[in-house]
Design brief:
The protein is an all-alpha fold. The chain has a domain of about 120 residues: Orthogonal Bundle (Tetracycline Repressor, domain 2), CATH 1.10.357.10. About 70% of the residues lie in helices and about 0% in strands. Helix 2 crosses helix 3 and helix 4 runs antiparallel to helix 5.
Amino acid sequence: MTKIVDHDQRRLIIAEAALRVIRQVGMKGATVRNIARESGLSLGALRHYFSTQDELLDFSMRLVKERATARINDLVSLDMPLVQKVLWILLELLPTDDDKLAEMEVWFAFTAHYRNSGTAFDVQHDGILDLVGRLLRSLKESGVLRPELDCAMETERLYAFIDGIALHAFLDTKRVDYERIVDLVTYHMKSICIEESFLF
């Protein structure tokens, strides 16, 4: 009987193996041979799905981004007060659990690799700046953002704030743990939103 192979599932398994290898040994160790070994496939089988290492790494990077985007979209669809929703979405961008910390570790490795490799993938356009801008415009349009604030400046400030917290949480997980992350993001939100908006 012929074995039916789900090619999309196989590509996903290979990409997840690549992410594990990157976490274990870094980008330099993310060779096709090491990833094939981690995924339990032969080199030939792996090359059937990804003809080059860059193609595999690009797919893996997009997988990390797609998973984060899906989690954010799930939050967007929830029925809750706007400030609470924005707070939860911002927390989704940060390493508040082991899975997100692992994703962040891989994302930082990808960013460093692609920045120096000269490939076409633009890691600076991770979508976070655009998302932060949309969240702040939504707060402004709903009358929740403090009226004296400049939305464009607050977008840049919040974008830098999120990146900074992410980096510190990645580098010092004991000091910048889940509770600290929640406290910091909540404190920032309270500084830019009208007081009544936090009655949830």
